[in-house]
From TrEMBL:
GO terms for molecular function: serine-type endopeptidase activity. It holds the Pfam family Trypsin. It comes from Kitasatospora cineracea. It comes from the Bacteria. Keywords: Hydrolase, Protease, Signal. Residues 128-140 have a biased composition (Polar residues). One of its GO terms (biological process) is proteolysis. Residues 1-31 form the signal peptide. Residues 165-393 form the Peptidase S1 domain. Residues 128-151 are annotated as: Disordered. This is Secreted trypsin-like serine protease. InterPro entries: CLIP_Serine_Protease, Peptidase_S1_PA, Peptidase_S1_PA_chymotrypsin, Peptidase_S1A, Trypsin_dom.
Length: 679
């Protein structure tokens, strides 16, 4: 082998947060000022008509979730909560009544000089301030009365601040089955004080909605950060009416906000498997086209109806990141419709083109009558299908079996599974991310599949996927290695991973102990000028195999009990090698396949003492990339042929070799592959 000048790489850079920015998620090149002045369509819980109620009754109603509303005291059947207070209106008998028709409800207000609360078939918790305490709570049982303020002490004044229903005899109405055409539309309750939005199920475990729904100030959605939402959030899916039973109510456990648009992916605590997610279109909306929208927000007459409405709409201005939307009368887009899906029909099915962000809210309940504009603004999603898929891939189910990963023509990672026990392949390649890769390898430790990759920037990255769980984000392997060209990884002891990289000036090694949670540092092992590399393990020894610049095959051992050996040529004098893979059966038998100048070659080594066989030409294929994995006593070889499609053949060491077959999925343009098997 030719040697180059030795040189150490400094391990100085901090761990990168992510590998790359997905191509589809990059900020737009054009400034987009469409819709910037339009108010947010997030339901903030502001009580409709509060100013008029204050003027007429002297009651300041501030916010709520719509479950408690002001009612007519002259009709006893219309209310479940009655408050007695010294009011400015002497004709009302000091009585203020509230309807609480459902099993829950919240209302914040200011009622000075309150002195008694009575309930009917509801238990409530009241928050108040008195002369003695700035804030306190008191519980009133169903069909009970409790005195506060002057009722308890003639000299004590009480200001009632909040009411919350804590129990109810109300029985929810049985819901009707959701319309399959809109069942993906989701109602979101953010906290329990009145903030609500709409969303779209784009994956069994992910909702796409407006980022502003989770912002402290919806007008400034850029403050939303990744991770768990600040307040408990519940998604209701598969119901056309949220006040009924049926469908699913699932907690949101994670937010993944888009960097520059009013969009966020929200992860469900558990997947919803009986509702078809909506597909994200890759075709841009066109001005003047007809679209469909959906939301659970306000209407012209209802504050928080919780009932799905589906206004048709037409587009006008289409800009780089969003488009203006005009509902078709009598449809409206109001508060609570933020995050709602906007779609067209493609191939007979809904295809998402945008997410509602803002609305002028003319004719919506609670909007000033002087506001006559009814238009809305939606954030485009058609150019973010890759970003959506990048997030979705984190919860793509990782099933026991064999996992194939490939680099597509654009540098993205794709996955395909096969279970050799059942003989069942996955239905097709699934895009896992939008990263820019040029080399890929994989191993399994326990129930965790670990991917290691070389980016187009020459750095080394890693991400993990737990069987039955989801994928982590890509992160740079510690040490800031640069100039990487190719990569291999192997496992000893069940949890120790050894990564070798062909660098700019030789081979480098780094080890990870996943039990201790520690990485070593990148260590330059030699000054070789290698072209391809792979590895396999017997016992506590990693056997590294490489194609050198002379196109011959070499090997060296890393025995983790005694140390590293030197490079030696694999017996047989094979020349013209281009790519290489290796696998192990029986604990000690290594099988090496090489893409040669005129086909694929195989040689086996028994490290238990019988040594190497001879190179055997297996076929006359013209392959471009190769990898392998083992189940039982069978080595499964996968290769990218000259047509850039994936093919596979098995070497069953009990019965012999099979022929090449095209792998399911029909993908082409593949540039690199790796495979690993998990239990």
């Amino acid at each position: 082998m030719r040697h180059r000048a030795s040189g150490a790489i400094a391990a100085s850079a901090a761990l990168a947060a992510t590998v790359f920015t997905g191509l589809a998620s990059a900020p737009p090149a054009l400034a987009d000022t469409t819709g910037v002045d339009v108010p947010s369509a997030v339901e903030d819980g502001a009580y409709p008509g509060a100013a008029q109620i204050l003027a007429e009754k002297g009651i300041t109603l501030t916010r709520g979730d719509g479950g408690i509303t002001l009612a007519d005291c002259t009709q006893p059947s219309s209310y479940q909560i009655k408050v007695l207070a010294r009011t400015a209106n002497e004709d009302d008998g000091d009585t203020i009544c509230f309807a609480a028709p459902g099993a829950s409800g919240y209302l914040a207000f200011t009622i000075p000089d309150a002195y008694r609360i009575t309930t009917y078939n509801r238990s409530v918790r009241a928050s108040l301030s008195t002369d003695q305490k700035p804030t306190e709570t008191t519980d009133v049982p169903a069909n009970g009365t409790k005195g506060i303020g002057e009722t308890l002490d003639p000299n004590t004044r009480a200001v009632l601040l909040e009411l919350r229903v804590t129990g109810s005899t109300a029985t929810p109405t049985a819901g009707q089955a959701a319309d399959a055409a809109t069942a993906f539309t989701t109602h979101l309750a953010i906290g329990d004080t009145g903030r609500t939005c709409t969303g779209a199920l784009v994956d069994p475990q992910w909702i796409l909605t407006a980022k502003s729904c989770f912002a402290d100030d919806p007008a400034n959605p850029g403050t939303v950060t990744a991770g768990a939402p600040k307040t408990a959030t519940t998604a209701t899916i598969g119901r056309t009416d949220t006040h009924t039973t049926g469908g699913h109510q699932v907690s949101i456990v994670e937010l993944a906000p888009h960097a520059s648009r009013d969009l966020v992916m929200a992860r469900l605590q558990a997947p919803v498997l009986d509702v078809a997610p909506v597909t994200v279109s890759t075709t841009a909306p066109v001005g003047g086209s007809a679209l469909n929208a959906a939301g659970y927000g306000r209407t012209a007459t209802a504050w928080t109806p919780g009932t799905l409405h589906t206004p048709a709409a037409t587009t006008s201005t289409v800009a780089a990141t969003g488009f203006d939307l005009t509902p078709t009368a009598p449809g409206l887009i109001c508060k609570g419709d933020a995050g709602g899906p906007v779609w067209r029909t493609e191939n007979g099915k809904p295809a998402l083109v945008g997410i509602v962000s803002r609305s002028w809210q003319g004719s919506c309940l609670g909007t000033d009558a002087a506001e006559t504009r009814t238009g809305a603004y939606a954030t485009r999603t058609d150019d973010l299908a890759g970003w959506v898929q990048d997030i979705r891939s984190r919860t793509i189910e990782i099933k026991p079996g064999t996992h194939l990963f490939a680099i597509g023509s654009e540098g993205s990672t794709y996955g395909l599974d096969v279970n050799y026990t059942t003989g069942v392949w996955g239905t097709g390649w699934t895009r896992l991310d939008g990263t820019s890769l040029k080399a890929l390898t994989s191993v399994t430790t326990g129930s965790t599949v670990r991917l290691y990759a070389v980016g187009t920037d020459g750095h080394v990255y890693n991400r993990d996927g737990v069987t039955g769980g989801y994928w982590s984000a890509w992160k740079e392997v510690p040490g800031n290695l640069t100039g990487a060209k190719a990569i291999t990884a192997s496992v000893t002891g069940g949890t120790k991973v050894h990564v070798q990289v062909i660098g700019a000036d030789g081979m480098y090694n780094q080890d990870a102990d996943y039990t201790a949670g520690t990485w070593s540092v990148w260590t330059k092992m030699d000054s070789t000028n290698l072209k391809a590399i792979t590895s396999a393990v017997t016992g506590n020894t990693a056997h590294i195999y490489a194609v050198n610049e002379d196109n011959k095959v070499y090997t060296r051992d890393a025995n983790y009990d005694s140390g590293w050996g030197n490079w030696a040529e694999v017996p047989g004098g094979l020349t013209g090698a281009k790519a290489i893979t290796a696998s192990v059966t029986g604990g000690t038998k290594v099988h090496v396949q090489v893409i040669g100048a005129d086909g694929m070659y195989n040689q086996d080594a028994d490290y238990n003492g019988t040594g190497w066989t001879v190179w055997t030409k297996m076929d006359s294929t013209n392959l471009k990339a190769i990898t392998s994995t083992v189940t039982g006593n069978t080595a499964h070889i996968y290769a990218v042929n000259e047509d850039t499609k994936l093919y596979t053949r098995d070497a069953n060491y009990d019965v012999g070799w099979g022929g090449w077959n095209g792998a399911p999925g029909g993908a082409s343009g593949l540039q690199g592959i790796t495979a690993t098997t998990s239990g």
